[in-house]
Amino acid sequence: MEIYIKLFEVLFPVFLSIGIGYWYGKKDAKFDTNFITTFSGNIGLPCIIFYSLTFSDIDFDIFLKFSVLTFIYVGIFSIIGLIVLKLLNRDIVRLLPPLILPNTGNMGMPLCLFAFGIKGLAIATAITSTILVLHFSLGILLASRKFSIQPLIKCVPVYAIIFSLFFVYYKIPAPKFLENATFLIGYSAIFLVLVSLGVALSKLKVFSFKETLIYSLIRVLVGPIIGFAFVKYLNLTGVEAGVMFIQASMPSAILTYLVAEMYSPKVITDSIASTVALSTFLSLFTLVLIVFLALKYFSLT
Known about the structure:
Layout: H1 2-27, H2 34-54, H3 60-87, H4 97-100, H5 104-144, H6 150-153, H7 156-169, H8 176-203, H9 209-233, H10 238-248, H11 254-263, H12 266-297
Helix pairs in contact: 1-5, 1-8, 1-12, 2-5, 2-7, 2-8, 3-5, 3-9, 5-8, 5-10, 5-11, 9-10, 9-12, 10-12, 11-12
């Protein structure tokens, strides 16, 4: 019975926050989330990164380890995505991002925090940091079919990662006032990005349901399989195993839609929006099982 209570404690705040955003998005169709997006991206996320990495006693080697695992994970999904898109005779370049880049930030980090505490958040942040860099490099490359370093240079969280890793690598204790400030701002941003996700989902529509269902099922079903394979064959245990399993099971990242909206034709953007919306909806059911398994088998440190 205890594990079911813990499961409810982990899922309820995340699903409730998304639900509030979805309700408000339906209630006020003109609600503008630009402020939330800007605040979260330029201030909130950098604070979460700094707080979780510097005050969790995470080792630099662990950060590096999960960054490498994330690259391998994306590489495996890239192969799967290319095969599926080729079989469906679809654009194998511009439609690839939602298949290979999971929503480890908006959904994954809060779930790992509530399931495994600050250590879980730190490892989840290591994974999200790598995904974030890929969004602003590989993601834009695929969406626009041309590479530019400018988006990566302008990405504030990237500098937060570098700044935080300086403290982690040299084991420099961060001052208490920074801990308090980044804790306050970072945790408020977690709620805001979940609400923003809900608002975004209230506005996204599903086009070509059958095709979208295929993409979405690949994300929410194949992801956990790959995550479990990592846990089993790389001998991950405890919190490390749980976080890897949960993060690998995330739906398509909403940032893939935002990038597509800026760089891809409308037909591509509509398809990606559909995949984000449907995969997120399906994940509300699959994540119940995923988090349950993570808590049951990987809760020990």
